[in-house]
Each structure stands twice: as structure tokens, then as C-alpha cells.
Design brief:
Structural class: alpha+beta
Strand content: 5-15%
Helix content: 55-70%
Largest sheet: 4 strands, antiparallel
Number of domains: 1
Shape: elongated
Number of helices: 4
Radius of gyration: 24 Å
Number of strands: 4
Strand order of the largest sheet: 1-2-3-4
């Protein structure tokens, strides 16, 4: 035998380490895929079109991977994205009257200075609508701003 036991063991360690790295990356990809699918499923079940669109936007590389692999689910997903965008844009057009009606039914009135796309409530809460991103940023006077829906990969 030309190889020493030390060389055999070193090679075995290197191979096992490489396999461990490949397995870790595969597990991370699977975990990410599960997260994307769960978010899509949850938002679809709740009929939240802007949230669905946010997943398609924020996870563009995930869906590009599906395209590259010619995933059979792609036509259905593309149809879902188109319909969600249409629904979200329609909801956005109704937003000014929907917000006003919701505030009135809660006994809260928008400030007179409120104009689309920026609304204020009692100089305490500011709602800024971003039509391009199909989102709204809600900022309480002394609090942390929140964007709805979130654009990040985590929920």
C-alpha cells in the first residue's frame, strides 16, 4: 500500500467535511424553499394579494431558480402573481375611501391635511402609501415605522 494511514484518514476527513458542507447547503436551500412555500400558502389562504406579491418580489432569485429548472408549477405561480398584482392594485385604488371609512367607523378621523399618498391621524400616526411597491409605511409618532407588507424574506 503506497498511501500511509495518515493520508487515508486525511482524505477521509476532507471528503466527509466536503459532504457535510454540501449537506448543510442543501438543508439551507430546502429550509428556504419551505419558508417561501409556507408564506405563499398562508397569504393565499388569507386572501392577501399584496403580501403574495411581496413574496414574488422579495424572493425573485428563488423563482428564477424554478424557471431555470423548468419547474412544472411555474405557469400556476405566474398566474397567481398576475392575479395578486391586479387585486392589490385594485385594492390600492380603493385605499383612500377604505381608510376613511375604516377610520370613521372606529370614531377616528383623518387629519384635514391628509392627501394621497400620505395620511395622518390626529398628528399621531402617519400612513404613507407606496404604489410602486404595493405597500404602506405606518409610522406612530413615538414608535417604530412598519411597512406592510414586509419586503424581507422573513416574516
Amino acid at each position: 500500500m503506497t498511501e500511509s494511514i495518515s493520508e487515508i484518514l486525511a482524505d477521509a476527513v476532507a471528503e466527509a467535511s466536503a459532504e457535510e458542507v454540501r449537506a448543510r447547503h442543501a438543508a439551507e436551500r430546502a429550509q428556504h424553499a419551505a419558508t417561501v412555500w409556507k408564506r405563499l400558502s398562508e397569504y393565499h389562504a388569507k386572501h392577501w394579494p399584496a403580501h403574495l406579491v411581496s413574496v414574488f418580489y422579495s424572493e425573485a432569485s428563488f423563482f428564477q431558480g424554478l424557471r431555470a429548472n423548468r419547474d412544472a408549477r411555474l405557469p400556476a405561480l405566474e398566474a397567481l402573481q398576475r392575479s395578486a398584482e391586479e387585486e392589490a392594485r385594485a385594492a390600492l385604488k380603493r385605499f383612500p375611501s377604505d381608510l376613511d371609512a375604516a377610520c370613521n367607523s372606529a370614531g377616528v378621523h383623518l387629519d384635514r391635511t391628509s392627501r394621497h399618498p400620505r395620511y395622518t391621524v390626529r398628528n399621531f400616526i402617519v400612513v404613507e402609501v407606496d404604489e410602486a411597491k404595493l405597500s404602506a409605511r405606518v409610522t406612530p409618532r413615538d414608535g417604530t415605522p412598519t411597512t406592510i407588507p414586509r419586503r424581507s424574506a422573513s416574516v
